[in-house]
Design a protein that fits this description.
InterPro entries: Bact_Lucif_Oxidored, Lucif-like_OxRdatse_MSMEG_4141, Luciferase-like_sf. Helix content is about 45%, strand content about 15%. It has about 280 residues and is of the alpha/beta class. Strands 1, 2, 3, 4, 5, 6, 9, 10 and 11 form a 9-stranded parallel sheet that branches. A two-stranded parallel ribbon has the order 7-8. Strand 2, helix 2 and strand 3 form a beta-alpha-beta unit. Helix 1 packs parallel to helix 12 and helix 4 packs parallel to helix 5. The radius of gyration is 18 Å and the shape is globular.
């Protein structure tokens, strides 16, 4: 079994996804759609998106290990994989400390969860792991198809590829705003980064490992930090930023397109697809 998401994908919160949008994403040439927001273990939305498309890969980004037991998600995985072979990737992860009342054994919980997926015959090649730090990147390399880092930069991608080695999926997410006015682009991107991510320990720790200072992360983040985490500019400039991940060693990069007022993302997705050379 091999799931091949292609070079470019779209990350979008579950509440903003529909079968119609999945069909549009597929028709634009993107290889995958990632379902954000800790989708429930029944994976009904993933199945609906797959049913509505013919070749698009659907991945979860991510099913939360604290809230969805392996015993709940495994039967859903098998149901979908049988119906849509090689088109579904089960992304799982530990989330962040602030989201759960018991975060005392995060590393052990990851290992135990993957052990249980093994026991329930969810194949290594059919699952990915949300991974930022070195220990969890090692687990993603050894126990899954690869890593799905969130809120990262090409510098993180380069470091992660060096640690993972060859032949392991590396699929980072990157936020984008198609706006060539830096001030208005930052005005859209900063709140999305600030709340909740700049207040969460795991994301702060990762950014500090990348060389940012605490002062860069406070008070909504410096302009330099926001520019690093939210690509903005013309479609061509944004495409070039996404391609920096590929040049740094990513196999696949998924763009989270931010729009004002929950505006329909399809026009911006179309412009980005054209700039990426896939539309």
């Amino acid at each position: 079994m091999t799931v091949s998401p292609g070079r470019y994908g779209v990350w979008r919160h579950a509440t903003g996804l529909s079968p119609q949008l999945a069909r549009e994403i597929e028709s634009l040439g993107f290889g995958a759609v990632w379902i954000g927001g800790s989708p429930p273990g029944d994976l009904k939305l993933a199945e609906d998106l797959l049913d509505a498309t013919t070749s698009l890969v659907v991945a979860t980004g991510i099913v939360n290990m604290w809230t969805t037991p392996a015993d709940e998600v495994a039967p859903s995985y098998h149901r979908i994989a049988e119906r849509h072979p090689d088109r579904f990737l089960l992304g799982v992860g530990i989330g962040h400390p602030e989201a759960t009342g018991d975060y005392s054994r995060p590393y052990a919980t990851i290992v135990e969860y993957l052990d249980r997926l093994d026991a329930l015959d969810v194949p290594v090649a059919g699952r990915a792991l949300a991974a930022l730090g070195p220990k969890v990147l090692d687990v993603s390399r050894d126990r899954t198809a690869g890593a799905h880092p969130y809120l990262t930069t090409p510098e993180h991608t380069r470091s992660a590829r060096e640690q993972l080695g060859d032949g392991v999926l590396l699929a980072p997410e990157h936020k984008v705003v198609l706006d060539d006015d830096p001030e208005s682009a930052r005005a859209l991107g900063r709140p999305v980064v600030q709340r909740p991510y700049l207040g969460l320990r795991n994301y702060r720790a990762n950014l500090l490992r990348l060389g940012w200072a605490e002062s860069d992360l406070d008070d909504g983040g410096t302009d330099a930090l926001i520019d690093a985490l939210v690509a903005h500019g013309t479609p061509e400039q944004v495409a070039a930023r996404l391609d920096e991940h590929l040049a740094a060693g990513a196999d696949h990069v998924c763009a989270q397109v931010l729009t004002r007022g929950m505006r329909d993302p399809e026009p911006d997705l179309g412009r980005l697809a054209s700039a990426l050379g896939i539309g």
